[in-house]
Amino acid sequence: MPTDRAEQFAAARTLMVMIDEMIDGALLVDKDVRIVWSNDKHVWFNDKLMAQLGFQSPADAIGQPVERVIPHSRMREVVETGRSMPLDIMRYGEHTLLVSRLPLRDEQGEVIGALAFALKHSLTYLRPIADRFNKLQSRLNRVEQELAASRASKYTVENLIGFSPAMLEVKRLVRRAGQIRSAVLLLGETGTGKELVAQSIHAGSDRAHRPFVGVNTAAIPENLLEAEFFGVAPGAYTGAGRQPRPGKFQLADGGTLFLDEIGDMPLPLQAKLLRALQEREVEPLGSNKVVKVDVRIVAATSRPLAEMVRSGAFRPDLYYRLNVFPIQLPALRDRRDDLEILASLFSERVALSLDQPMRDLTPPALDRLRRHDWPGNVRELANVVEQVYVRTEGDRITAEDFADILPGAAPDAHLGRSNPSIAVADGKRPLAVAMDDLERSLILEALAGCRGNKLEAARSLGLSRTNLYAKLRKHGIPVQPDD
Ligand SMILES: Nc1ncnc2c1ncn2[C@@H]1O[C@H](COP(=O)(O)OP(=O)(O)OP(=O)(O)O)[C@@H](O)[C@H]1O
């Protein structure tokens, strides 16, 4: 061991020369993580990169926060935690660098900065790992791009079919909603096209190139909702994983967040949602740091939200925040003029998907459709048309084809078959009770017909899966945990 200062100095200089030969860049930051020194090899500071970052010369980087020059730098973590990162692979411009980062401490052991070395040309012996890393990185980039594309909305206002006055008004409001930034509240029965409208609003807005992220409050168990909305910090709970999990707010950053079935949101979460909307920031589960988010909210519900506010089931402050630009979607029975065009559209789609010739609707068939009440709205219509294709044959759709398909086709026979007690609509029971019984019985029948498969049962009833679950809960029909 050298004993006097001159020898120590010589040893340190030799070491520095050796290190300098091995490395392609060295960088020193102070305790505020600002750059204080770099060696003259300038792996970080080549003129091209400097110009791209808006610096005149490498010297301008001195005094800058490190991320200003090296966007993916992890020096801040080293300074904040005092932990070294002896080996890390980092992309910088077109280079893949092997980086070592060490905290610098004063004599009292306090962290006063950090030192980083980058090895580039000495990577030869690590080439297989670096190549693999590069391959994985480009695969990840591709997957991320595909994911972003799949998050983009699929529908525009052109996909909203219908020329009835009610539908024309909806289209006008959808176009208007695309031009403003306020929250939109979509109100309407199940299957009236709320999701389609939400996507169309996004597609017509200046956020169209950013993600459209939908979250269905009713479909997520209550204890998972918060994590789903706001994300999870690493190690927030046992099994939470070491990577942070972004919530829907973060995924929708810069784009549109579609909050479907908002009326099903539990009250405690309503308070958190309101705070996120007001502060424009979220706090992931298990973290004490807030994350800024910029999302445009489109909420939807088939529940009577204003009534729920009156009964205390929905927070009034959240309701006013969401109800800035309400759009009421008309039920199909209130726009029967649209039946013809919608039915032919679905006929065309089903024919295409089944690889069969398209069947036109005869005037009596259309008449039959007009007389039906369409509780499941457009979704129910689509389902009825599909059933006709699957259950009947012929080159046209006739009124008779609906005999076994439309529930109202032969009400007495139908009720008598499924549950004789319901057929006793004898006027002694209130209509609402009789209707409830009928609904329960039809659901049980559909479930039995599909051997308990909820998705199939929902489709045969012309309901969304979410809606079927809500109805199962309402009627106390048990839902298996693995459903
Ligand atoms: N105006 C329309 N033009 C074309 N298709 C429509 C229209 N309205 C609804 N649909 C179709 O009906 C189905 C149901 O629509 P959507 O899921 O948007 O309804 P929803 O109101 O969100 O239903 P829920 O409340 O049950 O989730 C979808 O297949 C959708 O494409």
Question: What does this entry look like structurally?
Answer:
- It comes from Azospirillum thiophilum.
- Residues 160-390 form the Sigma-54 factor interaction domain.
- This is Fis family transcriptional regulator.
- Keywords: Activator, ATP-binding, DNA-binding, Nucleotide-binding, Transcription, Transcription regulation, Two-component regulatory system.
- There is one protein chain.
- The protein has 19 helices and 14 strands.
- It is an alpha/beta fold.
- It has four domains: 5-128, Beta-Lactamase, CATH 3.30.450.20; 157-330, P-loop containing nucleotide triphosphate hydrolases (Rossmann fold), CATH 3.40.50.300; 334-409, Orthogonal Bundle (Helicase, Ruva Protein, domain 3), CATH 1.10.8.60; 411-483, Arc Repressor Mutant, subunit A.
- Strands 2-1-5-4-3 form a five-stranded antiparallel sheet. It has a five-stranded parallel sheet with strand order 7-8-11-6-12.
- Helix 17 crosses helix 18 (454-461) and helix 18 packs across helix 19.
- The radius of gyration is 31 Å and the shape is elongated.
- Adenosine-5'-triphosphate binds at residues 160-162, 188, 190-196, 302, 378-379, 382, 464, 466-467.
- The site of adenosine-5'-triphosphate has 18 residues, from helix 7, helix 15 and helix 19.
What compounds sit in this structure?
Answer: adenosine-5'-triphosphate
**Could you give the order of strands across the largest sheet?**
2-1-5-4-3
User: CATH class of the largest domain, anyone?
Assistant: Alpha Beta
CATH fold name of the largest domain:
Rossmann fold
- Report the average pLDDT across residues: 83
Give me the count of strands: 14
Largest sheet: 5 strands, antiparallel
Q: Please, how many domains? A: 4
Please tell me what the overall shape is.
Answer: elongated
In the CATH hierarchy, the architecture of the largest domain is 3-Layer(aba) Sandwich
Radius of gyration: 31 Å
Runs with pLDDT <50, length 5+? Answer: 409-428
SSE-based structural type: alpha/beta
According to CATH, the homologous superfamily of the largest domain is P-loop containing nucleotide triphosphate hydrolases
Number of helices: 19
Beta-strand fraction estimate: 5-15%
Organism: Azospirillum thiophilum
GO molecular function, one term: sequence-specific DNA binding
InterPro entries: AAA+_ATPase, AAA_lid_NorR, Homeodomain-like_sf, HTH_Fis, P-loop_NTPase, PAS-like_dom_sf, PAS_4, Sigma_54_int
Domain Sigma-54 factor interaction: 160-390
